[in-house]
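Worked example

This section walks through a single chain of length 230. The input is the sequence exactly as stored; nothing has been trimmed or padded.
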Amino acid sequence: MDRRHDDRGRPADEPSLIDDGVVLGYVPDGADDAALKLGSGARLRTGTIVYSGSFIGQRFRTGHHVVIREGSVIGDDVSIWSNSIVDYGCLIGDRVKIHANCYVAQFTEIDDDAFLAPGVCLANDLFPGSRASAAEMQGPSIGAGAQLGVNVTVVPYVSIGAGSIIGAGAVVTKDVPEGVLAYGNPAVAVTSISEIDVDERVRVRADRARRRRSRLSATLRSTAQRGPST
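Given that input, the structure is written out below as tokens.
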């Protein structure tokens, strides 16, 4: 393989595009002089702050007002969207997508290809205010390819298995095995992903949505043709 290219044939030194108002290498209070290592091909938008002392792979992408704290390791092709925070000491694999308004607590591990929908919150302090708990903080472990729906909360120490899906609004208080659909408060595994006809479920919901949009469009067109009432 040409060493000037990665394993997908893309240039290993492709240029980065960094907006004005991005801060790279912000030094936290009391920290040492550890450098920030940022791979090529980054796309960082206004308001992003990346602290010193982290290692970030190639083609890292952020929305606006993203904060990446120190001491984290982030893989290649990771996207983190607007107003999300990755606290210090996290391990994030390749091709992970973290949507808007997410909080990833200190010492969280997220494996390759996982997805966090908007508003996901990952906690790391089992008993806030306790010195013993503070000394043993640990975020969740999110398995490869797992998908967490909108506004999911995951408490400290919990593991979510590879390929599992956590339904919107769930509160995950116990480990979730691989390859299951779980939801609720507290979240409970209800079926295996292999038992779900995903294509059929999507088709049915999409057909309903298209019918609603069609009715709405017809109403809007009719209203526009009548013109404003006098």
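What to look for: The first strand starts at residue 17 and ends at 18.
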